[in-house]
Amino acid sequence: MGEGSNIAVPRPWTEGRTSRPFFEDGELHSLQSRAIAYLRAGVAVRFQGPAGTGKTAMALRVAHALGRPVAFLTGHSHMTPDDLIGREAGFRSSRVEDKYIASVRRTETRTRADWQEGPLASAMRLGQTLVYDEFTRAPPEANAALLSVLEEGVLVIHHPEHGRDILAAAPDFRLILTSNPADYRGTAEAPDALLDRLVTFELAAHAAETETGIVSAATGIPRPQAERVVTLLRTLRLREGDRVESAAAPGAAGMPVSMRTAILIARLLVAQGIPADGRDARFVQICADVLRGRLSRSDTEAAVAACLGGAGISPTPPSGRGSLP
């Protein structure tokens, strides 16, 4: 794949009207190819990794490659099985009056329950690819319905009028899951019975070259400048420790210094026409503003300045002010 290439990936919630650039190099291409092959064989896949490693983008890229309509769902702590399967959404009444005989009026009222189909049931019925993002943020009881789907390709539905019904998945239905590590705040352990029915890909930290390509593709910032932003944040990760949003670390900063952070900084630089240059005070300020709250220290500006002027980034220029390569 060389240095990598950029691919336009449609976003399902915009019905294909817009697309998001997606960077692909040899490492990512291999991972995607394996995931696509497993899905085409009828096996569900899961992308797991720390925040900001591109799990959702990867899932959407793989889903798009299958060539079927894509449905998208995000897990949350208040989800119930009905949010996946469907629920009663009220009642609808109809009234018929029989005036065949003038002296007799016969009125008949019929009431039926309206059923709102859930995204899992809908994707199974229509043969869509369902991307279930952050599925471990939903309670285990909400995700219990996935067991029969992954094992037998069926879903049990309790309809208020039809009673117990079995929905068999269309042949083209596929399921892609994403999740953070189990020690992240707000996540639940995925049951072994569920994980045993799918293939999990671990998305750990990317290589610097891959991260640079992703940041450049996602924001449009020139690759050399993307490399400077990535180098700065990788240096900060080493100095700060690769902290995550972990329930096991109370009091730690709530957000990691992730690739998503690099994308945010790069997007702000592009929007304001500011170069990623350590000698430009505006660049330093943007970095400090974005990183404040992500670092465990209060002197964010000093931390950024130390990295920009330190050997971890580049030699100090003659002016005595730090700059990125």
Keywords:
325 residues, alpha/beta, 5-stranded parallel beta sheet, two-stranded antiparallel sheet, elongated, disordered C terminus
How would you characterize the overall build of this protein?
The protein is of the alpha/beta class. The protein has 12 helices and 11 strands. It has a 5-stranded parallel beta sheet, sandwiched between helices. A two-stranded antiparallel sheet has the order 1-2. A hairpin with a 3-residue loop joins strand 8 (154-159) and strand 9 (163-168). It starts with a strand and ends in a 16-residue tail after the last helix. 36% of the residues are buried.
Furnish the topology, listing elements before pairings:
Blueprint: E1 5-10, E2 19-24, H1 26-40, E3 44-48, H2 55-65, E4 70-74, H3 81-85, E5 86-98, E6 106-117, H4 119-126, E7 129-133, H5 140-143, H6 145-152, E8 154-159, E9 163-168, E10 174-179, H7 192-195, E11 198-202, H8 208-219, H9 223-240, H10 259-272, H11 281-291, H12 300-309
Parallel strand pairs: 3-10, 3-11, 4-7, 7-10
Antiparallel strand pairs: 1-2, 5-6, 8-9
